[in-house]
Batch of 4 targets.
Target 1
Amino acid sequence: MKHIQDYYAPVLGEFEHLVLTALLRVGSGAYGAAIRQEIEDRTGRRLSVSAVYVTLTRLERKKMVVSYVGPPTAQRGGRRKKHYVIAEEGEHALGRAYRAFRAITEGLEDRLAEL
């Protein structure tokens, strides 16, 4: 069944998909290092911190994520940490990507798991 947002949500690149999914898993208010760690833990890929932040910046420009700066913390030497939240546009794009992936792989799960 088509959702209305399927017609309007932008297509996600592979890494954008990973970053949004990791943000969804880690939860609202996650910061870049936690998102990076989630992707590394789940995929086994080693990532640079800058790759995640560049992608988060791009997703923010596309209105798929929103950021805010938290209060200074003692463990960061009084520095602030930037946190990220998935915006409605990002949720729509992620849902669309998920539905498209499920539709195209339907019936191929066993074969794909072997590759």
Target 2
Amino acid sequence: MLKSLVDLASDSSFFYVDWRMVVMWAVVAVLFYLAVFRKFEPLLLVPIAFGALIANLPTEGVVNKPAGWLRAPDAGVVSNVFVGKGDKVFVPRVVKQKPSKISDIIDDNPGLAPAEAVSAYFEMLSDITSPESRKDTFKKAKGIPDLIAIVRPDVADAISDKELAESKLKFKVVFKGKELELEGRDLLIWAEASGDVADLGAKAGEKVSKGGKIAEVYSPRVGGLYYYIQMGVLLELFPPLIFFGVGALTDFGPLIANPKTLLLGGAAQFGVFATFMGAIGLGFTSLEAASIGIIGGADGPTSIFISNKLAPHLLAPIAVAAYSYMALVPIIQPPIMRALTTLKERQIRMKSLRKVGRLEKLIFAVVVTIFCILLVPDVSALICMLMLGNFVRECGVCDRLSKAAQNEVINIITTFLGTSVGI
């Protein structure tokens, strides 16, 4: 009976919950309140908040990666391999610790001397990753997957001061009964899915290229639902599809009737460049700064599209920032408008513009597509989908397609994109 209760507790997820998850539940509750009761951009905020809730629960089959080849993040020499064919590897339901290199362990333990921090970490790692310890519910809850291998990266000609300092940090530790000689820059290769080691792509002492195969893990289970849905973000499918719907919702008639209003859109670029320069001043690279700056001059899909190309490691915070500020516009904008305009100015009624014909709108869509793609080929996917949606809207013979783009397509993609951003 007692064993059955222990097994039941082990299969549940209660022991994975920690204070950080509870804090995020409180944040999610605030987002739900703003979306549902204050109606601040609920179409964006509800999916984002629910995605954040999913990300902070010990889920199974939602965000976990599928088994497959583990690859070297950089070129170098495989200094150690800790698994062999047929071995079982384990990944906990919630991964809480997974430093990418030895120096990260030191950074995470500022109160300890470097040698002491690394030694203590590997001692703990050796304890919780033993086959006997995996049966212990409390050991599982530490959230550390199996360590598969260690790769020592090649010393590049243009090595940075930080990398040079890391290469001078040398340690000797014991892991699974084996003495290891480590450097601060050594890269740690962790299991990404539970399963059996089917093959080894490299042995200790062999050189590997960036992306080179280290070990293959087999599991009959596939990846989680949102592992695949998030491919819409990573493979840049969602932003162009969103733009297809946006194009179908947009009437460019006022712009065609009064081309001077184009300058209002151009004014936003001052904010982009100001943010770009500010980010450079804070120590970001030019590509990272460009990805951060575009948040203010565009919208969520564009920010995701650009950051995925220029700074993919910042995709998550940039996406959250872009959609968060859009959802909070009802809070941010009114005090700014009251501060910068008078009551009389805010009561001005817009004059009716001339009626723009269908042919003008169709020519506009085609000309903008050609001109923008010739000018900036890298944004071809966004421009062509935006103007395709607009052409479908204005041509007058594709009502079903136009209504689908305005409703079903954009609503479904917004839901998936919002939850992906929240996760």
Target 3
Amino acid sequence: MTIAIWIIGLATIACVLARPFEKPEWMWASLGAFLLCVTGLENPRHAFQAFSSGLDVYLFLIGMMLISETAREAGVFDWLADWTLERAKGSPFRLFSLVYFVGVVVTIFLSNDATAVVLTPAVYACVRRARVKPLPALFACALVANAASFVFPLSNPANLVVYRERLPSLMTWLQQFGLASLISIGLTFLILSFVFRKEFKGDRIDSNLRRSTPLSSDGRLVIFTIGVVSAGLLYCSSRQIDLGLPTFTSAAVLVV
């Protein structure tokens, strides 16, 4: 029995990584779980209990992704990327610094998944248009998604998974992780700045580049809503209220 569990588990992980037949990762993970249940290697009742115990995390993640996708559709992430390009004023290092700063803000208030999945493609398109080396900006997005993911409980869905019903209040969280998060964000920035120091000495960005499109009224509404939702989630966190349902409900209202 143990060998069979290992075989299914390793095969599932391999398929998630390799994505045979170009099928998405969730399909292989679900298939592996289904095989464990139908073969009797896992009690279906225990599997359902394990699934239902993560409901708050599912609602939180779905809500955050809905908010992020709505922001992407409204052009918020493209606008942010263009904003960094315009404010860089021809300096590759300033562009990198601004991208890092935007990544910190997005990670803190929209979770690290939004930074990795939604902000990064917008930043990549931006730096390609600026004709500068994309690696510094892409590494900034990738690593800040981890460095800033402990600023607030809502900054990383994994925080909800680890703590579950024992999630500390907001003030307790800040006391435990606030200083460490600031150090993590600062050290990551310094190390990346040192690693890519040669790239920053390259050609300057074309000063004639301008923002492609202004932020739409929908985009402004989304940003305002994100601010309200973030404030509400921080309040819920301070009261140790589960974040899943408020996040999902807020996202549903925003989409409507």
Target 4
Amino acid sequence: MKRLTAIVLAAMLMLGSISTAYADGIDIKVKGQWDFAFGWVTNGKFKDSAHHNTSDRDDDPLFARQRIRTQINFISSEYLQGVLMFEIGTLDWGRKGAALDADGINVETKRAYLDWVIPNTDISLRMGIQGLKLPSTPMGSPLFDADVAGIVASSPICDWISISGFWIRPFDAYSNDGSGRHYDDETDIFGLLLPMEGDGWSVTPWGMYGFVGASSGIYDYLFNDYNPTNTVTANNSHTNAWWAGAHFELTMFDPFVFNLEGIYGSLRRADLTGLGGFVSASAPEIGTEGWFIGATLDYKLDWGVPGLFGWYSSGDDDDAAETGKLGRLPVLGNDGGSFYPTSFGFAGSFNSGVGADTIVSGSGSGTWGVGIQLADVSFIENLSHTLRVAYYAGTNDADLVKKTGTSFLKYSTDNLYLTTNDNVIEVNFDHTYQIYENFTTVLELGWLRLNVDHDTWGGRDRYDETDNAWKAQILFQYKF
């Protein structure tokens, strides 16, 4: 089946070798984003090999990777189209799929959806596997930005108000696995957005409610490396989750642009006896509830954009082990990293997921930070530069780690669990050159200093090298 998919993709690419093709009234158009990354990273996991333990080492410092995304639009009219997007990668050169002879089967379905308008109405519907992102500041969404299966409906209400609603199913761990365990194994999320826009301002309040099967896989996604065989949850039960937030943008004082975002969310407790460690037999239920606020301020000049940014995300209290209630915003999905205030510690690399980034976090959960940047500075045509300096720290109570050593309860979307006694200093110096209209190269240079409190972590200290991490990488992107 995978080989057949690859053949179909090749045939579609041949059809798309010209910009437009017609067959039976269908207009076929091809889009794509092909990314390549070559770089060097040292101390990216803040560990050394002094203990001669393979699990206690950084990855290879030198890397070469690629990721190919190709989208095919089958357009019947302005009211109806089908969309397929395939992905090859991310592939590390020399490894499976990109090793000698390069004959691995590695074509993946990225998106597959139908986009149509209900006849004689202004209501548009999109159904299938699609990209969905919640409104956010330029730092990205800490909560949700991913490909997901579902239905999204949108319609204008008047000149300045529209409405969007959706139903998505991000988790269904036991579906079609032959186990017979199909009770409470889905997570269904329903959402409503109300975008409003006026002269020089816009605001989008939104809300989501979820019917959560504890055995659906959502807790695996949060607390373990996500595995659809559901290794974390042990007992079938159902619970719920909800989120509410708003994004506000102010442009009326141009050249100043101000963005503000606030989110509150709760994932009710469920029986996670299978998690072990933090979970005890007397208090097996774990849930999380928390909030996030973020803001950016940019001043757009002809030669560049000076800016300030900052955020605060709530963290775990010291009594979490007794109550089973964590204090972080529950993350729904971020495709490897959807929060990108910086390009090394967070997911802000030019082609995130191919180049090196997110060595601290993909969501910003349990952290706060401030930063200053000078972005898109350009004195030569097609060449621009961004200099960024940021300081961030943890909001998780250090006493929780001192008592229980709960570092393993970091979210799967994050690489580090930072407490109130831990902090990071990061500097990015990134350069972008537009070689051709559709072809861009980026040089990213990054330095990161992680400072952890050894008294807090004690014998549970996972950080053998806590001084510096360095990055130098060159990225290429062909976008058509």
